[in-house]
Amino acid sequence: MSTFLDAASLRPVARTPIWLMRQAGRSLPEYRKLRERFSLVEIVAQPDLCAEVTLQPVRRLGVDAAVMFADIMLPLRGMGVDFELVEEVGPVISTPIAEAKDVGRLRVPAGEEAAPQVIAAVRRVVAESRVPVVCFSGAPFTLASYLIEGRPSRDFTKVKRFMYTEPVAFENLLEKLSATMAGYLRAQVEAGAAAIQVFDSWVGALSVEDYTDRVLPHTRSLLEALAPLNVPRIHFGTGTAGLLESIASAGPDLVSLDWRVPLDRGWERVGHRRGVQGNLDPAVLLGPPELVRERAQDILRRAGGRPGHVFNLGHGVLPETPLENLQLLVETVHEWEIARVA
């Protein structure tokens, strides 16, 4: 049995499982060598390459889960959205949503149709992986933010203006995104994914009132649609310290905590009948080894051995992270639990 799946299901484990967001690629030399020849889109389009990149950190670091090498924007092509993944910038939408008729043009593709190349890659990775495979999608609000802003944003004024001035169109947009992502995630589970994570990376930009009234129903709808699949459902967000209770009410099995809230306090707020994931600041991995070990052990102490903790970062691995610190982190987490239960 998998320690990751046991922990994600709130079953007792002998050691805390660990995987890292953006572990596939980023700081690994073998990934950088591949990227000299292939783009992200090209890697995902070729199942053999995608499987290789996804499994590189499993082989190199000994993490307890493999996370698919993909991008949350990819299924939007199936909705009729044209975009480019620009290096050092992120997704850039050719024609951002500006009015209700733009929402009306979006399709809701069925399952695998959203991104067939990703589903093919999932099947290949699952066939080769010795650890559970985590698949993911964007959450309705975060995807809507990209569609309306046109590119990554710092203040999210365009999406908030649209939310306030075009409430019906905004509601329709989130409904379409929720339905599309539900089908897309279902197809990934049918292809063999053992857990799913919904990325709501930008939800921390919202007030509690706006999240609860305008976004929460669609996040809940997405998670409820996935409940019959009987796989762990993880909600990820950053800057969410003010939203934790509302996020928990959406119904995920695990809530990802970022580094802005101590893990034990965050867990109390989402409730101990749910698991938590996190929550090391990725920047700590840029520091000296003794700091990495100290901060990781502090998080483990705060978890207290309670069933339901999956160790992760509060966000993704930074590209400049020393490989030695990644290896040290995994070793520290695994050794802590072995020592504790011995």
Tell me the series of helices and strands, N- to C-terminal.
Answer: HHHHEEEHHEHHHEHEHEHEHEH
What would you call the shape?
Answer: globular
Mean pLDDT: 94
Tell me the CATH topology: TIM Barrel
Largest sheet: 7 strands, parallel
Number of DSSP E strands: 9
**Low-confidence blocks of residues:** none
Specify the helix fraction band: 40-55%
CATH top level class name: Alpha Beta
Describe this structure in words.
This protein is an alpha/beta fold and 342 residues long. It has one domain: TIM Barrel, CATH 3.20.20.210. Helix content is 47%, strand content 10%. The protein contains 14 helices and 9 strands. It has helices spanning 3-8, 29-35, 40-45, 47-61, 100-104, 116-128, 140-149, 157-165, 167-190, 208-226, 244-249, 263-270, 289-303, 323-341; strands at residues 66-67, 83-86, 90-93, 133-138, 195-200, 233-237, 254-256, 275-277, 309-310. The strands form 2 sheets. A 7-stranded parallel β-sheet has the order 1-4-5-6-7-8-9. α7 crosses α8 (157-165). It is globular. The two termini are 20 Å apart.
Summarize the structure.
The chain is an alpha/beta fold and 342 residues long.
Descriptors:
single chain, 342 residues, alpha/beta
Give a topology summary:
Blueprint: H1 3-8, H2 29-35, H3 40-45, H4 47-61, E1 66-67, E2 83-86, E3 90-93, H5 100-104, H6 116-128, E4 133-138, H7 140-149, H8 157-165, H9 167-190, E5 195-200, H10 208-226, E6 233-237, H11 244-249, E7 254-256, H12 263-270, E8 275-277, H13 289-303, E9 309-310, H14 323-341
Parallel strand pairs: 1-4, 4-5, 5-6, 6-7, 7-8, 8-9
Antiparallel strand pairs: 2-3
Helix pairs in contact: 4-6, 7-8, 7-9, 8-9, 9-10, 13-14
